[in-house]
Write a structure and sequence with these properties.
By secondary structure, the chain is of the alpha+beta class. Helices cover about 50% and strands about 10% of the residues. Helix 2 (about 30-35) runs parallel beside helix 5 (about 90-105). The radius of gyration is 23 Å and the shape is globular. It starts with a helix and ends in a 7-residue tail after the last strand.
C-alpha cells in the first residue's frame, strides 16, 4: 500500500510555480525536475550562500545557491524554447535533460560556495563533485538523469546544449550576474538576458548571437568585469574570505593536535584525508563522503566559529572572533609583488604583539593574488556573432568598442593581509 501511495503521488505531481524576485512567476515544467528539487541532496543548496561573505560589504547579499540554480533553469527553458521556435529540432527530452544539467550544476558547492572550495579536500573541484551528486541522484531515480548527465559532461552529440550550461555566455552566468546585482544593489551587473536569449541561434552545433544582439553581449561582458571588481573581488570581501580560509586551516591543525569542537559533518572532513574524487564512491569511506558532504553547509561553519572564539588556541580564538564579529584585517593591494622585507617586518611585529612562534605567523600575515579576465575565448568556447551576411566573428572582432578587446587582458593584483593593530609603515 505504501508503494502504491508513493507511486500515486509521483503520478499526481502537478506543474509547480515559483515566485522568483528577478523573473516573477516561473514554472517548473517537468515533474522529474520538481522531484529532483525535492531530493535532500538538492535541498542543501538552501543552506549555502551564493556569495560567501559578500554580505559583510553588501548586507543584502544573503541569497543562496538554491535560488540561483532555479533562475538558471528558468533561463535554460526560455533559451531552448526560443531556439525551438526558430525551427531547430529540440525534443522535450533534450529540454528536460538540459534543465537537469543546469539545475544540478552547483550541487558540488560546499559551505560559503567558492570561499572554502579547497578547504576540506584537495585536488577536487566543485564541478567534479556536482557530477558525483548527479550520479547518486540518478541511482535514486532509476537512471532518469542519464541525458542530463551526458549534457553536463559534454558527451551528448548536440554540443550546443552543454555550451548553454557551461560556456562564455551560458545560463549560469546570465542568472548570477543579474541575481548578484539585484541582491547587492550594484546596478552595474544588470544585463539584458531576455534580449540575449531572443538573439540566440544555432550554427553548426554552436551557439551564436545574431548581430542585433551585439550591444547586449558587450554590456554583458562589461558588467561581468565590473561585478568582479565591485563585488566578487571587493577588497573587504577578499580579506574576510581569506580570514575564513585561514580560520579553517588553523582549526584543522588544532583538531589534529588537541581535538576540537566541530559538527559531525565538519569533523568528518577534519578526520579524513579527502584528496581524490574516488573518495566519493560509497565503498571508499563509511559513512559515505558524498552523504556527509551533503550535510555540510554554512551553518556548520557558523556554529563552529562561535565555539572556537573560546578556544584555548589563541590564534584560532582570535581568527574566529574576528570573522564572527567582522573585525577584519588590513588588506593592501598592489599591482606588483610586495617587498619581502616589508612583509618580514610585519611578521616580526605580529609575532611580538601576539607572542607566537614564527611557524604560526602565517595564520595572521599572508599574501595572495587575485585576477580578473572577463572574457577568455578558446577555439572551442567563444562568443560568436552571426553577422547579417551570415559570416561569424568573435565578439572581440565584431565589436566596434575598444573596451571589449581590453576585456581579453588578464588583470592580476597582489594582496597583503595582517591585523590592523600591527601596521608597519
Amino acid at each position: 500500500m505504501q508503494y502504491v501511495k508513493q507511486n500515486h503521488f509521483l503520478q499526481m505531481n502537478k506543474r509547480k510555480i515559483i515566485n522568483d524576485p528577478l523573473y516573477g512567476l516561473i514554472n517548473i515544467q517537468s515533474e522529474l525536475l520538481f522531484d529532483i528539487i525535492e531530493h535532500a541532496y538538492f535541498q542543501k543548496l538552501r543552506r549555502i550562500k551564493q556569495l560567501g561573505l559578500t554580505d559583510f560589504v553588501y548586507p543584502g547579499a544573503t541569497h543562496t545557491r538554491f535560488e540561483h540554480v532555479l533562475g538558471a533553469t528558468f533561463l535554460m527553458n526560455s533559451a531552448l524554447t526560443e531556439l525551438k521556435s526558430k525551427g531547430h529540432n529540440i525534443t522535450d527530452q533534450e529540454i528536460e535533460g538540459a534543465g537537469i544539467a543546469i539545475l544540478l550544476h552547483d550541487l558540488g558547492h560546499g559551505p560559503f560556495s567558492h570561499t572554502l572550495e579547497h578547504s576540506f579536500m584537495r585536488n577536487i573541484s566543485h564541478e567534479e563533485l556536482s557530477l558525483k551528486f548527479m550520479e547518486a541522484i540518478n541511482q535514486d531515480f532509476g537512471g532518469k538523469l542519464e541525458l542530463g548527465i551526458e549534457i553536463f559532461k559534454n558527451t551528448y552529440h548536440k554540443k550546443y546544449l552543454h555550451k548553454l550550461v557551461s560556456g562564455q555566455l551560458d545560463m549560469d552566468r546570465l542568472d548570477y550576474l543579474q541575481r548578484d546585482s539585484f541582491f547587492t544593489g550594484v546596478s552595474e551587473g544588470v544585463v539584458g538576458s531576455e534580449r540575449i536569449i531572443k538573439m540566440l541561434q544555432i550554427i553548426d552545433d554552436n551557439i551564436v548571437v545574431e548581430e542585433k544582439g551585439i550591444y547586449s553581449v558587450e554590456k554583458f561582458l562589461i558588467a561581468r568585469r565590473l561585478m568582479y571588481w565591485q563585488v566578487y573581488l571587493h577588497k573587504t570581501v577578499v580579506v574576510a574570505e581569506q580570514m575564513l580560509v585561514k580560520t579553517i586551516e588553523r582549526a584543522k591543525i588544532v583538531a589534529k593536535n588537541n581535538g576540537i569542537f566541530a559538527t559531525p559533518a565538519l569533523a568528518y572532513f577534519f578526520d579524513n584525508d579527502i584528496s581524490d574524487i574516488s573518495c566519493f564512491e560509497s565503498e571508499k569511506l563509511l559513512p559515505s563522503a558524498i552523504q556527509t558532504f551533503s550535510m555540510l553547509d554554512d551553518s556548520d561553519i557558523i556554529v563552529s566559529l562561535k565555539q572556537w572564539t573560546e578556544s584555548e588556541d589563541k590564534i584560532l580564538a582570535f581568527l574566529s572572533s574576528s570573522v564572527i564579529n567582522r573585525h577584519l584585517f588590513r588588506i593592501e593591494i598592489s599591482n606588483k609583488p610586495f617587498d619581502e622585507k616589508r612583509v618580514r617586518d610585519i611578521k616580526i611585529k605580529v609575532g611580538e604583539s601576539f607572542n607566537i612562534s614564527e611557524t604560526d605567523i602565517d595564520s595572521l600575515v599572508f599574501t595572495d593574488t587575485v585576477s580578473n579576465k572577463a572574457y577568455n575565448p578558446s577555439l572551442n568556447d567563444r562568443i560568436n556573432i552571426l553577422r547579417k551576411d551570415n559570416t561569424i566573428a568573435d565578439i572581440a572582432e565584431a565589436s566596434d568598442i575598444s573596451n571589449v578587446s581590453a576585456l581579453l587582458q588578464n588583470v592580476e593584483k597582489y594582496l597583503l593581509c595582517y591585523p590592523k593593530q600591527c601596521s608597519v609603515n
